[in-house]
Amino acid sequence: MHRLLALALLLPFPQWGGTAADIARAIRENSFDRDECYRVRDLTLVKEDIRIYFTDGHLIFSKPVAGRRIAAVFAADVEGGDGEVILLPPDRAERRSLAAYIDSPNLDDHFRAMVLLFTGNDYEQLKSQLPANPTNKKTPDVGALLDEQWTPVLRNLGASFQARLTLDLLGPSRRTGLFAALVSSGKLGNFDLIYDPESAEQVLAGQLATREDNLYFDTWTNFTARSARKNPAPPHQDVAVRDYRIDATVNPDFSLNAITRVKVKPRIDMAVVPFDISLQMTVGETTVDGRPAEILQGDSLRFNLMRNGNNLFLVIPPEPLRAGREYEFAFHHSGTVIHDAGDHVFYVSARGNWYPMNRMQFADYDLLFRYPRDLDLVTAGDVVEDRTESEWRITRRRTTAPIRVAGFNLGDYEHARLERGAYVVDVCANRKLERTLVPHPQSANVPPPPIGLPRRRIDPLAQAPPVEAVPNPLERLQSMASEVASALEFMASKFGPPALPHLTVSPIPGTFGQGFPGLIYLSTLAYLKVLPEARRSSSPTAEIFFEDVLQAHETAHQWWGNRVTTGSYRDNWLMEALANYSALLYLEKRRGTHSLELMLDSYRNALLAKNENGQIVDSAGPIVLGTRLESSQEPRAWRSVTYGKGSWIIQMLRQRMGDQPFLSMLAETARRYDRKEISTDDFRQLAAEFLPKPSDDPKLETFFGEWVYGTGIPTLKLAYTVKGTAPAIRLVGTLTQAGVDEDFTTLAPVEIKLAGRTITQWVRSANEPVTFTVPLKQAPQKVTLDPHHAVLRK
Ligand SMILES: [Zn+2]
What we know:
- The chain is an alpha+beta fold.
- Helix content is 26%, strand content 34%.
- The chain is built from 16 helices and 37 strands.
- The chain has a 10-stranded mixed β-sheet with strand order 14-17-16-15-18-13-12-21-24-23. Strands 1, 2, 5, 6, 7, 8, 9, 10 and 11 form a 9-stranded antiparallel β-sheet that branches.
- The two termini are 51 Å apart.
- Zinc ion binds at residues 459, 553, 557, 576, 579.
């Protein structure tokens, strides 16, 4: 047990008589205390890497909530008044990220006002500095003005953070508590500064921004706080969950109500347990070991934008949970997560979880669904019961191995079922076409386009090709079943068994897919044969994508994302890159290397697309920024970099390793990280084991430095001359690099074709032209720079 957890056990639970709802209401209805307003000079507040100076102005504290003052406002509302905030990101990548938004690698801003929310000792810290300067005096008259002016802002912000604040106020005071500042700056507009000790990367600065009516949270910088950098603590999970039993009813109006039971074992004593659920679900009556527990569900847009669309809610058991004991939680929850796209086509909205989750933890699932008998409902696991009872159909499934999340889908389906060895593939197709795909569409409920909010596990991979005439959603059913089965078999032969032996494929409107364990959502476009006219007018890769890549990509997530997993937004690219490249391997096997290269070319073109400032999409930031790349600055970047550059990164590793070592590397990744989290750096080390030796970059540090942790797509040119006569010939070449930073470097293969054989000379590029010599016994027939897509280049 690490030091901080040990300390937490010694602290008593706070002496607060009210309920969580009382606290949350007090937060929402909080106001400023006119008797706690001060004229202040030269106060300093240091929160790890965040330094705040209240140089000259007024400071007012809020009234206490649960016995603690949790908010303040500083206003530089005096002649020459000033406040200053300084934040220095600790590494180059974060300085670059910050500079992309505020034109400076460090944040040093003079602000007019700052609203603070905190659950640590910030009140005491500020109060203790007041006596140092005799001019720091109480100013209740100014307090009245500030109270009037700022209380609406305080309440608004408090409502955004109410669940998170209540979690701190009710729980044992682990570490130092949340600190959130809303800064009102003349230069930068309103922006947020957060220190959240519950996050793996505790310090965050960013801003809500709109672009073309979409709302984004632009993360300027996000990093591990100073103390945690010095004393890294192993990642901890306060609660372990196992054994989900969900009993759900889909009503004729498509509302869903469910009872979710799950076993919960806290690792520390806990008075309050955090869970996540979709914003569309409401959690009602909840019990812990049969005794009623209190629920606090927030509605916090700002906070949820930072939490990938999920809504934090709190369970407050009748008495604190004890470390190491297992409890049964039972939640009643209901809401509308099923949407009607018209003509008996339905889909489950993918934003957030439809049932309560505490992080994504591997657990067994027993899922019972009751739903209108004229529909089909599919979910993870093997069917153990399937019957009808008057107007209802009842289906129960059980998983045969632990999974991290269970999805479901329903519709009026036609099925095609195939068994291949130990695996069963069940492909469902809608009997009817959704209205938006019918030519001359009538008005219909169109699913939300996959842009705007950061999401997880959704693959908005392509633009829809045009569809003409009335297509039939059943026409590819049989062939899709055999294709999914082939992809599953192909991948199982390379990576071992999939997440579950039973895989169901079901349609979803839109242009994307999603791969849950044992259940795939596929764009309804993947079910259609695109007509010849449409084929001519759409890009060749759109067709390849919908026919071959999308299903194989989602199938590949049975391994990448559902067996091998990641723990940070910085590593999620790896699951997408491996899933997409696995799909490209399958595409290559089916249709040849040319198809794979066409896809790579289209990814490169998307990365080279320019924005209004003439910058290419790739320059938005390195792939490890994950969903942070989906910002108001370049909304296309997240998709193009994650899927496109991700695929190129894996392709470049393959070209350096050679096919057999590359496939062994993938198999070893699946084996070594089975039901474990892999980080980007774990993957670098593993991949390096499969490089041919000797290697110019034996730990792949240069490769990852440029392609994974950096940006840039070079132009490479080769010039060469052949000197001497056989058998003492010398090929003298020059490799020239342009279009990237001067410290950029990559290995590039030069293929030399001789009579009867081909040799490949790898040359490292640099800012200055690089000259190399290859001794040959015979004159080369052909010399080609990078003929096999081994380098992502212009
Ligand atoms: Zn994916």
